[in-house]
Predict the structure.
Amino acid sequence: MANYKLTELMVVRCAKEIADGEVVYVGVGLPLVVAAFSFATSAPNMIMFTEGGAIRATAPLALAITIDDPAAFVGGDATFGMLATMASLQRGEVDVAFIGGAQIDKFGNINSTGVGDWSKKESFTYFAGSGGANDMATCGKRTLAIIPQDRTKFVEKVDYLTTPGYLGGPGERQKNGMIGGPECVVSTMGVYKFDINTKEMYLAEYFPGQSVEKIKAACSWDLKVSPNVIETAPPTEEELKILRGIDPSGFYLG
Amino acid sequence: MDIDKRMTLKEAVAKFIHDGDTVYYGGFQIMVPMALTYEMIRQKKRHLTTLQASTDVGGLDLLVGAGCVNEMHTAWTMNWYVKAVYCMRRAFQNGHLKRYDISNFGATTAMIAGFMGVPFMPIRGNTGCDMMTNNKADLRIIDDPFTGEKTTVVRAWRADVAIIHAQKVDRLGNVIAWGTRGVTDEFGANGAKRGVIVTAEEIVEPEMTRSDPDRTIVPYFKTLAVVHCPYGAHPSACRGYYGLDIRFAQYLGKYQRHADLLPAFLDEWVFGCEDHAAYIEKYKSKFGQEGLDRLKPVLGFKPKFEVDYGYHDPAVWKGVPLYMDDRLQAAEEALAKKKGGK
């Protein structure tokens, strides 16, 4: 079996969630790597949107370090700016909202603002803030998220609800005028899907080297597990070769 | 009209940025107005409120760390290259900074409303989340007057003054920028009440800017000050001139992390440098010319067709008779007869 890094497994697994030809609004971080990898493998006809304002039908010329990276714009199809990509998002034209985050709860609500109690300022540790994550996950037809996992990051209720998942449960997105919702979460330990009725996140796959028990222990609510839970397939040599060519300096993959 | 608005960085900041101002902080994750950031710190500007969407090299965080900012309206503020926002985090915790969170498009829409001179604007997003709960200053829910449905609206953002960095500007203040920058400068800068301070890589003649006005993002009448400032966005990137200096952003980030060391960074790189040219010289003496050379972008990506802004002179129509044919002639005559008969 091939030797691979955890980040490489995560990228390759995420790419399987993107169907060829879809419009994918790509957030900062590993999603940028997934987009480049998808173009090169399973989704050559994908359309990539960024918050910086690039709309492109081809992979960036080099790895984009930020969502406003010139490499994401050179040779793009349209580079009008955030107004154009966000307006398209608001018109309901984006298939996949692909974001990262720092904390997630069982209904797929995501926190990228900070941890602690915001109203007690001295207790609150700020991260970056929403960026475009809230916009993307509000208006995308479905949300795909990458979140690192431990008990402080997979929580019953997020410290700060930056980006809507299913909010308080079934029907709440509709009540707030939203379509879509989270469909898949890839963590550092496994892959999660959402129950169609309860809207609760459940474990669908565990990564090689992990187990259901270890993953449940790294989750602060009583995580439901699919009766059909499987081990995630490791990346192939061919996939790794392509992926390592995308991030040669290891900026994202390590 | 030929008002020469060229001045030094020091003059521009002293003259046009006042304590207590609301400042549009330009750029996105590129084209960050770093020379202006350093100069505002040098001049110890205080009690500023900042408006922006997203900013990544830690310039805004440094402005907070130096005690210049009391209030921040933002979607995303980071030094992405150390994956944290240390100064801002401390300032919030110790009560020195009020922070108003909103999404990227919430911020952009707020600037578009300010740009348009309307009080607020509807938006999708920022609904059902804690930003709506915690930022009533910028976000509200109203009834759509047409459908009665609940609609999120953002308050218009209008800064007192805007600071931006661009590739070229003329002495009058026509600002030329290309390559996407999130495209909030257009709205945030033009929406500023008093106007815009611009630093640019090059100062060019007005006949140059006027030869390509599609690329002018701020017209001269909005510009207060024009500052020639090579590397004015460093360590952020300037499209076509230099790339992002990841290593310097990381170096800055380490100082931002260590609160006790931050004054040493400010002494060496800000107060210890008379202006931005001195800062770049300092950079070369510390990290070598090769540090700057590493930032050289891959060039050669020019449009593959020529653009000609040709126009047509309506003087050619002088003396040309109206086009007519028999059918139309008959209809016209019948109409004239009918009118005459009344």
Notes: DSSP finds 13 helices and 14 strands in chain B. Chain B has one domain: 9-293. Residues 326-341 of chain B form the longest helix (16 residues). The two ends of chain B are 55 Å apart (CA to CA).
